[in-house]
Structures are given as structure tokens and as C-alpha cells.
Amino acid sequence: MAQSMRGLNPPKTLKPNLQLHNHRLPPTHFFTHPKPISRNFPSISLSVMAVRNQHQPPLSLDTLVNSSRREELSDAIRASLPNCLSETNLQLTVPGLKSKTRGKVRDIYDSGDYLVLVTTDRQSAFDRILASIPFKGQVLNETSLWWFDKTRHITPNAVVLTPDENVTIAKKCSVFPVEFVVRGFVTGSTETSLWTVYNKGVRYYCGNALSEGLVKNQKLPQNILTPTTKAADHDVPVTPDEIIKSGLMSRDDYEEASRKALSLFEYGQRVAQEHGLILVDTKYEFGKGRDGSILLIDEIHTPDSSRYWIAHSYEERFQNGLEPENVDKEFLRLWFKDHCDPYKDKVLPDAPEELVCELAWRYIFLYETITKSEFKMPSTEEPIHDRISRKVAEALSLLK
Q: Per its UniProt record, what SUPFAM superfamilies does this chain match (predicted)?
């Protein structure tokens, strides 16, 4: 998220099927507040393959590769390659938007009382934009909506409403300049990933003591928090003491946000396991609302912010020294690492079309697997930028 907006930022969540009908918006408090659910979530055992309905086969890589649903969507994905939402300029088309900040994936607009977050199709890794992925923005926005709705018993969030598939309107809050990265496994390929630093000999990372003898893709004895902060355009690992001593967060705020992050991750792991997946690692962002409450913002458990593996095959592949079957963007990261230096090269090669289409399918596959609902293709009758402009303008006029 761009530094200039660090003081004012939100997330995205609302009732997944909210629509604007006849210019009437439901009240912003339409979310009912369920009774608190115990946060003592059961630990996830990988000795038992994914919990599943006895009438359903276990989720497997074959399901991902040879799915009839994939064939059903392949033409739409390929046809959408020239029409990805790579950039928006709502400040030119929507009255009342005061400024635009361009993040890696989201375009953020200040409307005075609220922030408007547009999730684009931009694909980010290595602190770079690698490509644009068809339907990615919609998948991220709607996946977050689903998870935000499911996690209100753990923490409140800042979402006001979502007038469009790619858009969330949120309360303004003071954003903590810390990303709460939670990890359950020793894995990864980026410079700040746990396996990369562990393989280089690091045994104390972000305040966590790591034992000797760990191997790649091994499950950690317990989930750990490895916070990062921003320096220029890079994620910088940091310890809790450094966060507090440098004044990035107070001790009380850090401890509360840390508890929320670990509880969110444990819950996410449980839900993912029930759906045949392993939530390997993820990141959360938090902000402080005007009433002093700590709110979950940005995105949650999306294919962009999280790593997912297929649970059914994990143990056998790990025991045989094979990479887990993954359903995330790691394959695209690895392609760039094999074909360039994504950290140093000024110009990156174009991502192959087949990999872009594959990633689009994986994003949709994860959405449908987690939410157990069918991804709805957006209408092509109206250009996407026109559609977003119209719906955002309508929503903001009704929020006045």
C-alpha cells in the first residue's frame, strides 16, 4: 500500500451479494453480529488428510488440472487477456474523489469520509508488477468478502460496502506500518521467505528461535509470526522489540494485533483443511479506527496474500522429498526467477500467456474451493472502467 496513504487506509468486506437496486442502499450496519465463537481452535493434524464429505473424493492436483470447470472457463479467461483491469483513473470520472494512490494491486481513492479501494488485475511479486491476470481483482475482492464475513468473531474490519465486484468502500483508519506475516511451514522462494533465510543459516528470525535440522516444506512445531515493515519498496523483517522501540506501534497495540493475526491464521487453517487445502502462510494488515478499536484491513486469505497447498498429497510428497502440490502463484514466481533476476533487472520479460491463463484459473479454483460457490463472470456489456465509475459514483452519492 503506498506510503502516502499509510495514515488513512481500510480493507474490504461486506455481504458478498450486496447489490445496489433502485438507488436504495442497505444500512451500513447490515452485518449482524453473531455470538462470539471460542478462539481455542483445534490444532490441524496433517496425519489425516483433508476433512471431507464422505461422498466427495479428496481434493487433488488432478481436480485442478483436469477439471471440467477449467475447460468451461478457459475460453473466457483467454478472451479476457486484452481486457484486464490494469489501471483505473476514477479521480477523472467520479465526482468527489480527491486523490489516487497506486498500490501494487489496489488503486486507492480518498472520497473525504471514506476510502474507495479498487482491486485491479495486476500481479505483484518481488515488489514488482509481473503481469495482469484476467478476473484476478474480482476474485481477490470477493474472496476477502467471504473471509471477512467469516472472521468477524475474531476481529472487526473497516468495510462499509462493496458496490462493485472489484470495489470496496471502507472507513478511514490509521494504518499500522507493519505487515503481520504468519507462517505454519518452512518454505518459500523470495528473499524474506522462511526457507530462504533458514537455508542461509539464520536461526533467529523476527523474534522466533528456529531449531536445527528443519527441511524445506516442513510443518513448524507451532505457527509463528514474522512481521515486516517497509523501507523504500522492500519488505523488511523486523522483531517485535524493534517495532515497539522504533515507535511503529505501542506494545499494547502490537500484542493485540499479534493475537488477532495468530487467531485468524488458526481459523483460516481449519477452514482450509475442511475444504481439502492447507493454508501455509499469509499476511494481515491492521489499522486503528476513530474509536480506538483495532480493525483488520486490506485483504485476507486470498491467493495473493496466502500460500495454499493441497492437503491430500502433502504428507506423502513431503516424505518423498517432493514439492507440495500448490494452488498459488509460486509457479509464476519461479518462472521469473529462472528467466531473470526479478530483484535487479530493470526490465522483466513478459509472462508467458499460458502461465497467465493458468494463474487466472487457479485464482478462480481457489475461490470456488474455499467458498463452495460458483464464480460469476462479470458482464461484458459495459466496459469495466465505466461500470466501476458508475457504481462508485452511485454508492458515494447515497452515502452522503
A: SAICAR synthase-like
CB count in 10 Å sphere of residue 342: 18
Q: What pLDDT score was predicted for residue 89? A: 97
Q: Spell out the residues 6+ positions from residue 189 whose beta carbon is closer than 8 angstroms to its own.
A: 195, 196, 330, 333, 334, 337
Sign of CA dihedral 328, 329, 331, 334: negative
Q: Per-residue pLDDT for 166 more than 80?
A: yes
Q: Which H or E run includes 361? A: helix 353-371
DSSP string, 25-80: PPPTT-S--PPP--S-PPPPPSSS-----TTSPPP-HHHHHS-HHHHHHHHHHHHT
Q: Give 175's Cβ-side CA count (13 Å radius).
A: 26
- Dihedral sign, CA of 63, 65, 71, 73? positive
DSSP state of 221: E
Looking at the predicted structure, is the pLDDT value of residue 235 above 90? Answer: no
Task: For residues 242 and 245, give the distance between their C-alpha atoms in angstroms, rounded to a whole number.
Answer: 5
Q: Are 118 and 389 in contact (CB under 8 A)?
A: no
Enclosing H/E stretch for 122: strand 122-125
Domains, the chain, ranges and CATH? 60-173+333-399 (3.30.200.20), 174-288 (3.30.470.20)
Instruction: Express each pLDDT in 7-31 by its tens digit.
Output: 333 333 333 333 333 332 332 222 2
Q: How far is CA 235 from the centre of its chain?
A: 16
Which residues on adjacent β-strands are paired with residue 80? none
Q: Are strands 106-110 and 99-102 parallel, antiparallel or unpaired?
A: antiparallel
Cell (9 digits) for 213 = 535440522
Q: In one letter, which amino acid is 288?
A: K
Q: What is the pLDDT of residues 114-124, one digit of tens each?
A: 999 999 999 98
